[in-house]
Amino acid sequence: MTGLAGVELGPSRIEDLAAGAWILGAGGGGNPYHSLLNLRAAMRDGFRPRVIPVDALGDNDMVAVVSTMGAPLVGEERLPDPAVAARPVEILAERLGRPFAAVMSLEIGGSNALQPFLVASRIGFPVVDADCMGRAFPEAQMTTFAIAGLRNYPFCLADIRDNVVIVERAASWKWQERLGRVAVTEVGSIAATAKAPRTGREIRNHAIHGSVTRALRIGAAIREARQQGADRVQAVLDAEGGLLLFTGKVRDIERRTTRGFLRGRAEIAGLGPDDGALLELHFQNEFAVAFRDGAPVGMTPEILCVVDSATGEALGTEVIAYGQRVRVIALDCPAALKTPVALESVGPRAFGFDLDFRPLFPESGP
To answer: Most exposed of 34, 73, 169, 218 (fewest Cβ within 10 Å)?
Structure first.
């Protein structure tokens, strides 16, 4: 590593990170609240989370890429454990025969944004200000590393029962997803993972830089609006140049957990300026496509998020419920997700919708 000190996050900034990541999760990535509780406890015991820029990495530094894999609904019942989060990293380091220099999140959305900090609280690594999704997505091939064609193995997963699976080789990123998903389903539809290790050079060339900073910025906007008694949803839109798509009340929700995913749809009846209209949101862990009165009005890879109209708090696909008054917002996604090659993996057709991607934000993303 180049020796850059990075930035130490205090308690209020960890709160900002959790709030911002929940927005960037597009309804998925898992509710960060329980991970936040773990980090609060670790920080009371002396843990000092540190975030470093990508430029702090040497070309050959090895970085652990971590996440929780599984269905968000299960994550509401099986709570995160820092020891379990760190276990795949420790095992993969033993398998590789060399130490990691840092840790980063697979995705900046939801609780997975806090996963590297849980690992760091046990092992002491700095956390890289980057991820490889710029939001949350449900499958392994939906990363900038996969889009770039980087090697997808070895990877490791572990569960709370001390089951450990190492996949030494997978024929493709889709095969990695299939093999990992089978293992995760067998251990109860949730497990901690360490994906294929990445070098500093690979992260510099192919990761999404500044994603932790973006989550912190969104969280700070929410906190400041709360302190000032201002509209928290509008504060997010102003901070990120986002769009308000719909205002309404949840009138129906359909959810099912299949093959380690949470799938379904939510119907939102319009209120106020949207009175008389109906918004239908389809999801696979994350919100993928929004239809207003049958016509598509927002779609992946841009970020669709449902927030509580009063508090501005994001609502995950596992907790959105009948009767909630909500606003649906859209935020831009990184430009790397909008290329023709990337859209094959993260566009609406990758989620089963016969739609061409129509951007709400035609300029390059953050």
So the answer is: 169
Judging by beta carbons within 10 Å of its beta carbon (0-12, 13-18, 19+), is residue 364 exposed, middle or buried?
Answer: exposed
Q: Summarize pLDDT for 312-325 with one digit per residue, the tens.
A: 899 999 889 999 99
**Which class does domain 240-351 fall in?**
mainly beta
Q: Which residue pairs, CB below 8 angstroms and at least 24 apart, start in 341-344?
A: 341/147, 342/144, 342/147, 342/301, 343/301
Report in angstroms the alpha-carbon separations of 190 from 32, 67, 284, 320, 358: 15, 10, 15, 20, 33
The DSSP result for 307-325, as a single string, is EETTT--B--TTT--TT-E
The two structure tokens encoding residue 45: 């015991």
CATH of 7-211, one of 3.40.50.1260, 3.40.1610.10, 3.65.10.10, 3.40.50.620: 3.40.1610.10
